[in-house]
Design a protein that fits this description.
The complex is a heterodimer of chains A (379) and B (659). Chain A is 68% helix and 3% strand. Chain A is mainly α and 379 residues long. Chain A has a three-stranded antiparallel beta sheet with strand order 1-2-3, with no helix packed on it. In chain A, helix 1 packs antiparallel against helix 2, helix 10 packs across helix 11 and helix 11 packs antiparallel against helix 12. The longest helix of chain A is centred in the C-terminal third of the chain and has 34 residues. Chain B is of the alpha+beta class. In chain B, helix 9 runs antiparallel to helix 21 and helix 13 crosses helix 15. The chains are: A mainly alpha (379), B alpha+beta (659). Chains A and B meet through helix 7, helix 10, helix 11 and helix 12 of A and helix 1 and helix 2 of B.
Chain lengths: 379, 659
């Protein structure tokens, strides 16, 4: 069976777009972080150096995974999933560290590690294998729906325990997207709509989470309280707006000088918009679109269901997280803290995203060649 | 191997469609923000980046006429809070409160209610600033500016005045010339980051300001010092409420010195100079304290009115001479009383021993009220009022100090009743400011020109360019030069032979007139409270200075010649020596061997007995007080019994009414 799908070159578009994003990311992390790096560490290159090293490590990871036959992930999917869940639980041991009121990191001594990044990939792999094994029963209530939602609930719940709503939404969204493509009954839309409403209401109105309500209020009119809750969004819009069509020029952002907090992280897209203008932001948006559509294309031409679901999952993950970030900085959805894949500063995130691309690229090496060509016309 | 089925592909297409929609929506949002709304957002961002900082101009320096610095600037430090950078106002307040001496809760309030940059305390010392800098607190910053400093402390305080913490002139020249001294602030427009530090980009604009102009005063530091010293001594010797001394150049109207005692230190105008007052003030409420401050800062010379008494006789004499109703040869007869007005009997100060026949000079030197009533009657009400006005009473002199008063004189001729005309002739029932009085004396002495008194000679910029010059300004000619000459002779005779002999200075020809008046408080004469004054001119052959000494509420003795005269003498003698005016001794002064004798004890004797004894001994006496009867007994004398004095000196006699 395998011989039918001769191993060939990986998807060039995905590879190129990913490298471009990582490259732009390293440059932009340097530009956006230099004021803070200089102030806090006396070295304008502080964040750049770290991001550069992570990028190299990430690309190596990607290349290695690109050359590992993806079937191995299917084989060990349960083990991988259990391992990532354990990592997630480790946060509640003394290894976990609390930053800014949230417990999301593990201290590995030489660096910090965000288990939720591992959970994302682990869940995609396990869920893909789960969906493949369900075969035609995937749409039935007892054998498909309930177990599927138990898995989704487990992954999402674990991230939600870390007080990380935005990552919970990403994980839930990614897995729901996979289940939808696998054949989720349409009635689930209505039920899940209701459940999502309840979930979001709980997330927003439950005790200790008042900050979420304030964020939603400030989303409606960020300028009403531009020194308070609307501050970040207003500053982001100032950056994007003053960038205009062609931007103020690389390295010349004014908003990165402490007007935008952590300009090299969740709001790096605003700085890109300020320095490189609409041209720059559109280019980034296009790169994401290419990766996502090519990931779906890889899925379409993949030779087994596992590869299909993994590709769909990785495409969905990148789509949900990247577009959620861009939506936040353009004031399209209520502000929530989520970083921009491949670009934002942060080692764990970059490594795992590049790892995902590595797996995706490996899958792309086993696609039907003819099909892929035909599909190119469609997309 | 399970392959994806058809249903999977349909679902995948739906997912692709959703992603496509999201991409288009985000693209639309980006165009909206980065193209459609870009200008508006950019403007707002620019407003956020741009900070304009005012560049404080240096306040002009105040010099005396010889270029000595009377008011300068010293570095001063202001403490600011960058409100957004302070996370815990309480903690910051706790740290800085003891250093900047502001209460903790006040600091917390300032920070919490402030936006952007909030001023916490102005004008702290360099030591405080250093201490604060060493603490290195985030959000607290110190800027350097300048603060007014008066190197001579309480010296010419009422001329110079002082400024508030923002360097705005509050009193004195600092206030009246504030617009010149202040300068125009510059503006520094820069782009800053969120921590208010300048961004490493272009776009800095600096608008140069203009430093304040410097002032050259007419005040002479040396003469001012003589006046200050004499005023302090007069205040102390007489235990008076206050003493005011003005020295003026009668020919130009330039104020050479102006001293009030007690005074304040313009470096800390709210702190009284002496411990006693300080402890008194510590119990006052804020409102009471404020009243005390305003009282302390009043410049008696221009802000307050007094009844001039006999010094005003200069005006009466000038009017009479100028109108020709009297001349050098006119004689007056004093029988002690003036009874021409029905139901009113006015008495001469020496009614118990009338002056009898006297010529014009004697009448002036004796300060005989009867003679002046007659003079005023001859001049007539209309003319008399004309001269009073011509001499500048009832109008502002135009001196460049704030809050000048007009004084009180009859508004119309019809307001002057016969008795008013009589009392006005010797300086009662009119109220004048000291500056009006010395200006009138100057006009009488300088050949008849009423000048505009002024205190600023010139305004110049930092490079020494003259911006404005104040030249002597004649308001009008009041009397002829001839009349002025006669008046000078009369004034000199008062000092050599009359009530002003305590101001006599061998070698210098000094002219002057004494004055004593009961104080008027709330429109009523207050018995036992006096204002004693002496107005002088020297040298009379070529007037260089006019001096007015006013002693408010002296205790015990109160005759102008005794209370104010000696201090006028101090000022005149020191000033003439300083101005290198040579002494020219008369033959009489050279040959005179001073014969001395011992003052007898006169206390307890009646007026008649006491004056008889003094006459026989060859001593003069002054009883400048009307309300005594024949049976009045001497209660006090000056000098006291047993002291050695020269023949021809004056002994002051004080009485208490017998009834």
């Amino acid at each position: 069976m395998k011989s039918k799908f001769r191993k060939h070159e990986p998807d060039f578009y995905i590879l190129f777009s990913t490298i471009m994003l990582v490259f732009i990311g390293v440059i932009m992390v340097y530009s956006a972080s230099s004021p803070k790096a200089l102030l806090e560490f006396g070295d304008a290159l502080y964040f750049f150096k770290r991001q550069f090293i992570w990028a190299i490590l990430g690309l190596i990871t990607m290349i290695v995974l690109m050359n590992i036959d993806y079937h191995i992930w299917k084989k060990h999917s349960t083990l991988i999933y259990v391992f990532t869940i354990i990592l997630g639980l480790l946060i509640f041991t003394p290894l976990g560290i609390e930053l800014k009121g949230a417990r999301r990191w593990l201290n590995l001594g030489f660096t910090t590690f965000m288990p939720s990044d591992a959970i994302k990939l682990g869940s995609i792999i396990f869920f893909a294998s789960f969906l493949e094994n369900k075969k035609e029963k995937v749409s039935s209530l007892k054998d498909g729906l309930i177990p599927a939602f138990l898995v989704i609930g487990l992954s999402t719940g674990l991230v939600y325990l870390q007080k990380d709503l935005s990552t919970s939404i990403t994980v839930a969204g990614t897995m729901l997207s996979m289940y939808f493509i696998a054949g989720m009954p349409y009635y689930v839309f209505i039920i899940s709509g209701v459940l999502a409403t309840i979930f979001i209401r709980v997330a927003i109105y439950s005790e200790g989470n008042e900050y979420r309500l304030e964020r939603i209020k400030s989303f409606r009119d960020p300028f009403a309280d531009k020194l308070g809750d609307g501050y970040q969004i207003v500053q982001s819009l100032y950056a994007l707006g003053s960038g205009g069509l062609f931007g103020v020029g690389l390295g010349k952002s004014k908003q990165k000088f402490f007007y935008i907090p952590e300009a090299y992280n969740d709001f790096i897209f605003s700085i890109i918009g300020e320095e490189l203008g609409l041209v720059g932001t559109t280019f980034i948006l296009a790169l994401y679109a290419i990766i996502i559509f090519r990931a779906f294309n890889v899925a379409k031409n993949s030779n087994d269901k596992f590869a299909f679901f993994v590709s769909c999952g990785i495409g969905s993950l990148i789509a949900i997280q990247a577009f959620m970030n861009i939506a936040v900085v353009t004031s399209s959805i209520p502000p929530t803290g989520i970083n921009l894949p491949f670009i934002s500063s942060g080692g764990t995130s970059l490594i795992f995203y590049l790892a995902s691309i590595g797996i995706l690229l490996n899958i792309s090496r086993y696609t039907k060649i003819g099909g892929s060509k035909k599909n190119e016309h469609n997309s | 191997m399970k392959k994806p089925n058809r249903a999977n592909f349909v679902r995948l297409k739906i997912a692709i469609a959703v992603v496509s929609l999201v991409v288009f929506f985000l693209f639309y949002k980006l165009i909206k923000i980065q193209v459609v709304e870009a200008n508006d957002l950019k403007k707002q961002a620019l407003r956020q980046w741009t900070k304009s900082v005012e560049i404080e101009p240096t306040r002009g320096i105040i010099y005396d006429r010889n270029g000595r610095k009377l008011a300068i600037n010293t570095p001063s430090y202001t403490v600011w809070a960058y409100v957004s950078e302070i996370e815990n106002p309480e903690e910051v307040a706790k740290k800085i409160s003891p250093i900047i001496e502001v209460a903790e809760d006040e600091i917390v309030n300032l920070i919490k209610n402030g936006t952007n940059m909030k001023k916490l305390k102005q004008a702290i010392t360099m030591e405080q600033a250093e201490e604060l800098k060493n603490l290195n607190i985030t959000g607290i910053s110190i800027t350097e500016g300048t603060k007014r400093y008066y190197p001579l402390n309480n010296f010419a305080s009422y001329v110079i005045g002082f400024t508030d913490v923002d360097n705005n002139g509050q009193y004195g020249i600092e206030k009246t010339f504030d617009s010149y001294l202040k300068g125009t602030p510059g503006l520094w427009i820069k782009l800053t980051d969120a921590k208010n530090k300048q961004l490493p980009y272009d776009g800095e604009i600096i608008y140069e300001g203009q430093n304040g102009y410097n002032l050259l005063l007419t005040i002479d530091e040396n003469i001012q010092r003589f006046a200050e010293e004499a005023a302090s001594k007069a205040l102390e010797d007489n235990k008076a409420k206050s003493v005011n001394i003005i020295v003026m150049d009668p020919m130009t109207g330039e104020i050479l010195a102006l001293a009030n005692k007690p005074d304040y230190n313009p470096n800390s105008p709210r702190d009284p100079m002496d411990q006693e007052t300080k402890s008194e003030w510590s119990n006052l409420s804020t409102e009471e304290l404020q009243n005390e401050w305003f009282k302390l800062w009043r410049n008696y010379s221009v802000n307050d009115l007094y009844e001039p008494g006999s010094t005003f006789k200069i005006v009466t004499a000038a009017a009479a001479l100028e109108e020709g109703v009297v001349n050098k040869n006119t004689h007056f007869y004093c029988n002690g009383f003036y009874k021409e007005i029905p139901k009113v009997t006015l008495r001469c100060a020496k009614w118990y021993d009338p002056h009898g026949d006297q010529d014009l000079y004697e009448a002036f030197a004796n300060s005989c009220n009867i003679a002046f009533i007659n003079m005023a009657n001859s001049v007539g009400k209309e003319k008399m009022l004309e001269y009073i006005k011509a001499f500048g009473f009832g109008e502002l002199t135009g001196i460049d100090l704030s809050g000048e008063q007009k004084g009180i004189i009859p508004k119309r001729v019809e307001d002057i009743r016969d008795v008013n005309l009589a009392t006005i002739s010797y300086g009662h029932s009119v109220a004048v400011t000291p500056i009006q009085m010395i200006n009138a004396i100057s006009a009488a002495a300088n050949g008849g020109n009423l000048m505009t008194p002024h205190i600023v000679k010139a305004v110049s910029d930092d490079d020494g360019n003259l911006i404005k010059e104040y030249k002597p300004e004649i308001k009008r000619q009041v009397i002829s030069e001839t009349t002025s000459k006669v008046l000078l002779e009369m004034l000199e005779k008062t000092v050599t032979e009359g009530t002003g002999t305590k101001t006599y200075i061998p070698g210098y020809r000094v002219g002057g007139k004494t004055g004593t008046a009961e104080k008027i408080i709330d429109g009523k004469y207050v018995p036992g409270k006096y204002i004693s004054s002496f107005g002088g001119i020297a040298p009379v052959d070529n007037p260089r200075i006019a001096v007015l000494v006013i002693v408010d509420e002296p205790t015990d003795i109160y005759y102008g010649g005794t209370v104010a005269g000696p201090y006028a003498k101090m000022v005149i003698e020191n000033t003439l020596e300083y101005l290198s005016v040579p002494r020219e001794f008369t033959d009489e002064e050279l040959s005179e061997t001073t014969e001395t004798l011992i003052v007898p004890d006169l206390v307890g004797l009646s007026v008649v007995e006491a004056t008889k004894i003094l006459k026989e001994l060859g001593l003069k006496y002054v009883i400048d007080y009307e309300e005594i009867s024949e049976s009045s007994k001497v209660t006090k004398q000056h000098p006291s019994a047993g002291e050695e004095i020269e023949v021809n000196s004056i002994v002051d006699l004080y009485f208490k009414n017998a009834n």
